[in-house]
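[step 3/7] inverse_fold.run input=structure_tokens len=445
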């Protein structure tokens, strides 16, 4: 049976959830507090870069299965289920900022007080363990005058999406984690999930809300640690002759206890999830007297990793002052325009500090880059334009279009054909021998 769903937040999680639920036949009310972003979505366009999202969003809007609303309270009163999918940014002290979550829950509570129907509130935002059963429940109960587990349902429903493949990940998850406050809430949300996935429903794990919240944090922390670990091994590999960290990762990745995923060495992790969630986990744990040493070390290792390319450049060029740098790739990963905590920011700043003149190019993130760097760098419209006259090219994001750059372009366009590959975009054996090539995790040849 189709449901009426209220979604708070039009970020990656909220917008993708809303669009796909509408595609499955539910009626979705989407509220976004940012008026400009709300208008963009209402026009059938996505305010964020995500493959195929524009098309699916336009279809949902035209079919009126997805309606962008300006009155969240009225929308909640008409709904059976609410998703809170707003951001949980990091505060200056590293702790999680729950302002958006609490604001969304207040709207939902007012909607609950105006309705007599049973309604389930699902927290999809990443929050510290204890948040759903604690401050979320207390806020909603106080404002609505209703009790969780009796007059409304409450669930921690974490997502495990990757930017750039969010639609695929939501449709094909490895599992679904349902943190139920009470059995009725769990039955409701499991029924919704099984209807959403149909015959291809993944394994569903019903646990307490705090356990579900911890699963999300622990998952991101472990993935971040894998990345930091292989980057440290890569840094060691560079000091030996004829060692390639990619082959090392392949070798250990065959061990089922380890696995190959997230063992691609590079310039560190970034984006809206791993750095933020790891910091929030570390600081939240510290507040209750637990020191997460591995997580702290992971953050510390990731902070310095982007600067590896500067050392590699100095080994190839000597002094960098006055030289021209071409930086290809600015988004924290391909398939997105997101530059939050992107390695490119640290790379560009390090190159500027070294006295280099920097030109940058990215297929999707130039508009965000302008907000980060202002007039400190030049912005190219193509990879070729970025390379013109450069003394050194830095590969920072592994976009597919960069993988097909021919050797001749580096040789003909650059003043010196020096390529520092921070993401292992190229196979060194396939490059023209006139190119001076160095890469993260590639030993001396």
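[step 3/7] decode complete -> sequence:
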């Amino acid at each position: 049976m189709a449901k009426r769903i209220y979604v708070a937040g039009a970020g990656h999680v909220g917008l993708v959830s809303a669009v796909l639920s509408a595609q499955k036949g539910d009626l979705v009310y989407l509220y976004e507090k940012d008026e400009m972003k709300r208008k963009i979505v209402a026009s059938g366009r996505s305010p964020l870069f995500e493959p195929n999202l524009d098309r699916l969003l336009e279809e949902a809007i035209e079919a009126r299965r997805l309606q962008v609303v300006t009155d969240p309270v009225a929308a909640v009163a008409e709904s059976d289920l609410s998703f809170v999918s707003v951001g949980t940014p990091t505060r200056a002290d590293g702790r999680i900022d729950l302002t958006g979550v609490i604001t969304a829950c207040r709207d939902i509570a007012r909607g609950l007080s105006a309705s007599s129907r049973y309604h389930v509130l699902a927290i999809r935002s990443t929050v510290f363990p204890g948040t759903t059963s604690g401050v979320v429940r207390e806020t909603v109960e106080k404002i609505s005058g209703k009790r969780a587990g009796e007059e409304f349902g409450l669930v921690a429903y974490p997502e495990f999406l990757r930017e750039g493949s969010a639609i695929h990940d939501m449709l094909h998850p490895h599992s679904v984690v349902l943190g139920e406050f009470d059995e009725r809430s769990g039955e409701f949300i499991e029924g919704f999930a099984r209807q959403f996935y149909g015959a291809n429903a993944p394994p569903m794990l019903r646990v307490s809300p705090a356990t579900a919240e911890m699963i999300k944090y622990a998952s991101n922390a472990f993935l971040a640690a894998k990345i930091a670990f292989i980057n440290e091994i890569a840094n060691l590999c560079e000091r030996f002759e004829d060692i390639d960290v990619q082959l090392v990762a392949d070798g250990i990745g065959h061990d089922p206890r380890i696995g190959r995923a997230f063992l691609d060495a590079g310039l560190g992790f970034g984006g809206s999830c791993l750095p933020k969630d790891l910091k929030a986990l570390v600081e939240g744990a510290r507040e209750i007297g637990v020191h997460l040493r591995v997580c702290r070390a992971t953050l510390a290792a990731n902070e310095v990793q982007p600067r590896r390319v500067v050392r590699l450049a100095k080994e190839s060029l000597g002094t960098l002052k006055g030289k021209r740098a071409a930086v290809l790739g600015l988004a924290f990963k391909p398939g997105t325009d997101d530059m939050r905590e992107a390695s490119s920011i640290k790379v560009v700043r390090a190159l500027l500090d070294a006295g280099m003149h920097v030109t940058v190019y990215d297929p999707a993130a130039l508009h965000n880059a302008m907000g980060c760097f202002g007039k400190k760098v030049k912005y190219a419209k193509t990879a070729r334009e970025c390379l013109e006259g450069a003394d050194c090219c830095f590969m920072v994001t592994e976009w597919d279009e960069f993988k097909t750059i021919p050797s001749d372009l580096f040789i003909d366009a650059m003043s010196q054909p020096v390529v520092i590959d921070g993401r292992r975009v190229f196979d060194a054996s396939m490059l023209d021998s006139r190119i001076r090539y160095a890469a993260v995790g590639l030993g001396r040849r």
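[step 4/7] annotate
The chain has two domains: 4-207, 238-439.
The domain at 238-439 is CATH 3.40.50.720 (Rossmann fold).
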